[in-house]
Amino acid sequence: MNKAEENLIELREREEIANKKLLNLEIVIGLLTTLTFISLILIASIIKMEKVGVILLVALAICIFLIGIITSMSIERKVGYYECSKCHNRYIPTQKQMWLSTHMLRTRHMRCPKCHEKSWNKKVLSK
């Protein structure tokens, strides 16, 4: 194996490690924002305060949750690819596909841009 091939393999391995770290960060962001959301809602419902205070606390909880979800979705979309289960094409979905697709963890029901079939596409880290 020549030096160029070794460098290419090493570069691919580095990219995969970086992608795994980003996907782990996505999980951490999702968990933290969800826990913060639940905590703030519980605080707003348990502690007696003025209605304005409750409304502000719930609004803050919703804002934090939305920011976390948007950030997590952005990371998931940009890191790696989705592989079509029909034609095995690997692609990066559009923002609209990400928001409107049914999903289970990192598997999404989307239309492949190559074969135009709708199927469950799995997240993969490299092309």
What does this structure look like?
The chain is about 60% helix and about 15% strand. It has about 130 residues and is an alpha+beta fold. The protein has a 5-stranded antiparallel β-sheet with strand order 2-1-5-4-3. The two termini are about 20 Å apart.
In short:
This protein is of the alpha+beta class and 127 residues long. The chain contains three helices and five strands; from the N terminus they run ααββαβββ.
Topology record:
Layout (H helix, E strand, L loop, with lengths): L2 H44 L4 H28 L2 E3 L6 E2 L3 H6 L1 E3 L2 E5 L6 E7 L3
Antiparallel strand pairs: 1-2, 1-5, 3-4, 4-5
Helix pairs in contact: 1-2
Estimate the global geometry from the Cα principal axes. Answer: elongated
How can the largest sheet be summarized? 5 strands, antiparallel
List the helices and strands in order.
HHEEHEEE
How many helix segments?
3
Cα(first) to Cα(last) distance is 21 Å
Radius of gyration: 20 Å
Give the class from helix and strand content and strand pairing: alpha+beta
Proportion of β residues? 15-25%
Give the neighbour order of strands across the main sheet: 2-1-5-4-3
Query: Which spans of ≥5 residues are poorly predicted at pLDDT below 50?
Result: none
* Strands, total number: 5
Helix content: 55-70%
- Global mean pLDDT: 93
